[in-house]
Specification:
about 45% helix, globular, 4 helices, two-stranded parallel sheet, alpha/beta, Transcription Regulator spoIIAA
Length: about 120
């Protein structure tokens, strides 16, 4: 499940991932929120909080994320990844290093406040 967090405002899109992410969650909640912020602000900052109940995602989510990411590559300025398995933060950091103009940083589950301070 994906929920838009109340801290989302302006160019910041903050989302909470719980349980298992489905392709419908991604296309019905995540993508519209990002597209709206991109349309209004050009560049966006994203905070992804994977809470303790987060179990992962359907395979289709990877495909949707890849398509959306490639289409909007230059519109992401900063991405904070909070929680999740250790490998998720490492992969996120690698992606950030490969894309000019984008900064990605991972935070432990207990560092949500620090992540918000950094992303703003």
């Amino acid at each position: 499940m994906i929920a838009i967090m109340e801290q989302s405002e302006g160019a910041l899109v903050a989302v909470q991932f719980s349980g298992e992410l489905t392709a419908a969650d991604y296309t019905d909640i995540w993508m519209p929120a990002c597209e709206k912020a991109i349309e209004e602000h050009g560049k966006v900052r994203v905070l992804v909080y994977m809470d303790e109940s987060f179990e992962g995602w359907e395979t289709a989510v990877v495909w949707e994320d890849t398509k959306f990411g490639l289409k909007n590559l230059t519109h992401f300025e900063k991405i904070a990844v909070v929680g999740g398995a250790g490998w998720i933060g490492k992969v996120s950091g690698l992606v950030g290093n490969l894309i000019p103009g984008m900064t990605v940083r991972s935070f432990a589950t207990g560092e949500l406040d620090e992540a918000f301070d950094w992303i703003k």
